[in-house]
Write a structure and sequence with these properties.
By secondary structure, the protein is α+β, with helices and mostly antiparallel strands. The protein has a domain of 139 residues. It is 44% helix and 9% strand. The protein is built from 15 helices and 14 strands. The chain has a four-stranded mixed beta sheet. β11 and β12 form a beta hairpin. α4 runs parallel beside α6, α4 packs parallel to α15 and α8 runs antiparallel to α9.
């Protein structure tokens, strides 16, 4: 059995998780002031001037009416703009603004993970024109090695952090393009998805170390210059990325996916606790407790691979350890350990909204109707507050902002539509395509 060490010890080796808001702070304070020359005329962002749909005051008699209004407000929040560098024909290439209400350059920035979520949502909900536009942008942004960078500005063609690669982002982009391409018969999207899958296969770690066979976290860092070449493969694996990579490889390279799943269960699953560890390096396991690995995505992934018993264990662990009661809101914290300045003891009412919505999806698929209903009710309440769009977090804590966010909003839409229609959202499903063509 591997020797476990605390997260703090792993930090000294550079083996750590970096929250999105730490990356945003770096961008706003360091990168954005530099600017990108005079190329700003080649792309433009037009703000949508729409008055938010009003939510009626909730009563026992109008629950569905309120939910419908919350759904409309969430859809209305998703601000899709032209990404001019990728517009090569009569149809516009598009990108979703990740934080459209944010001030300054962040308000016009798009994170590739969010574009992948938006592509999945628009494709699944039948909004083909928007889906096609986002697919064009993702195809355009794919790196020569098959990967994707982390984020890009929609105003400046040079503002694409292509050199900063995280394999969770790569997997979501490949998955979304594959789903869209198969659903609408788009061979270019399918080719891009296959290239992404091949990149992930090549990013599996070798040797005889503890992390062998798992997919590396990626290469380079948030501070890497934009025009830097691919750096050395990072010698550690993040559990969340393994879930993401597996559902891509299961579609395009099933034998590789099978071997990856075996290593995930051998190395990362903590049998005594009934959950996954958060990450692993060559000689040490990081057994910190993160909602995505320990509960929400862990349970969804296990269920998608037929491991229902373990899925229930993982889900129950999250219920027991991450649950938050914040008055009228119900949800889950992101961590149960101190990570990057986050202290769960100091944030007893904190709700990580994106993770909470994915816990609702796990609850729904595992038959826990009561929890699923409480989570979707939280989504409705947040969507109906103030401006439309669900926040990243219900309270300001280190690493988590209360800004309305595309990712939180889309995960709510996934949960709401799956519960309303009985059709599974296109996330964490075992979809294997015919790859002989």
């Amino acid at each position: 059995m591997a020797t476990r060490v605390p997260h703090r010890g792993l930090r000294r080796t550079g083996f750590r998780q970096v929250g999105r808001w730490a990356l945003l702070a770096f961008f706003v304070l360091v990168v954005a002031p530099v600017g990108f020359g005079c190329q700003c005329h080649t792309a433009s962002v037009k703000r949508a001037e729409q008055k938010p749909v009003e939510c009626p005051k909730p009563t026992e008699a109008n629950v569905e009416e309120v939910r419908q209004a919350a759904r409309q407000r969430a859809n209305q929040f998703l601000e899709v703009v032209e990404y001019a560098p990728a517009t090569l024909g009569p149809s516009k290439a598009l990108a979703v603004l990740s934080y459209p209400r944010a001030e300054g350059s962040l308000g016009s920035r798009s994170f590739v993970y969010d574009d992948a979520l938006a592509l999945l949502w628009f494709a699944w909900s039948g909004q083909q024109a928007k889906a096609s536009g986002i697919a064009e942008t993702l195809i355009y942004l794919q790196n020569p090695d098959g990967s994707w960078g982390f984020s890009f500005g929609t105003k400046y063609p040079a503002d694409y952090h292509a050199s900063y690669v995280r394999n969770g982002t790569v997997a979501w982009a490949a998955h979304a393009l594959g789903y869209f391409g198969e659903r609408y018969g788009q061979p270019r999207a399918i080719r891009a998805a296959r290239r992404g899958a091949d990149f992930l296969r090549r990013m599996r770690l070798g040797g005889n170390t503890l992390d062998r066979g798992l997919v590396s976290a990626g290469y380079n860092s948030a501070s890497t210059p934009y025009d830097a070449p691919p750096g050395p493969t990072l010698q550690y694996a993040v559990t969340e990325h393994q879930f993401d990579a597996h559902f891509v490889l299961a579609r395009w390279e099933p034998s590789t996916a099978e071997r990856l799943a075996e290593r995930m269960n051998e190395v990362l699953w903590l049998d005594e606790e009934g959950r996954f560890a958060v990450a692993v390096a060559s000689d040490r396991l990081n057994d910190n407790r993160a909602l995505d690995a320990a509960g929400a995505w862990g349970a969804l992934w296990l269920l998608s691979t037929g491991e229902r018993e373990r899925a229930v264990q993982s889900y129950r662990y999250a219920l027991d350890h991450f649950e938050t009661d914040a008055g009228e809101l119900y949800g889950f914290r992101p961590y149960e350990d101190s990570v990057d300045g986050y202290d769960p003891v100091q944030a007893p009412e904190h709700i990580f909204v994106e993770g909470t919505m994915s816990m609702g999806l796990a609850a729904h698929r595992l038959g826990d109707r009561d929890t699923a209903q409480k989570v979707v009710a939280t989504g409705v309440a947040l969507s109906c507050r103030g401006e439309n769009g669900l926040p990243y977090s219900n309270v300001e804590v280190p690493g988590f902002s209360t800004r309305p966010a595309a990712a939180s909003t889309i995960w709510f839409l996934f949960l709401d539509r799956e519960m309303a229609t009985g059709q599974n959202a296109p996330v964490f499903e075992s979809i294997v395509l015919d790859t002989t063509g």
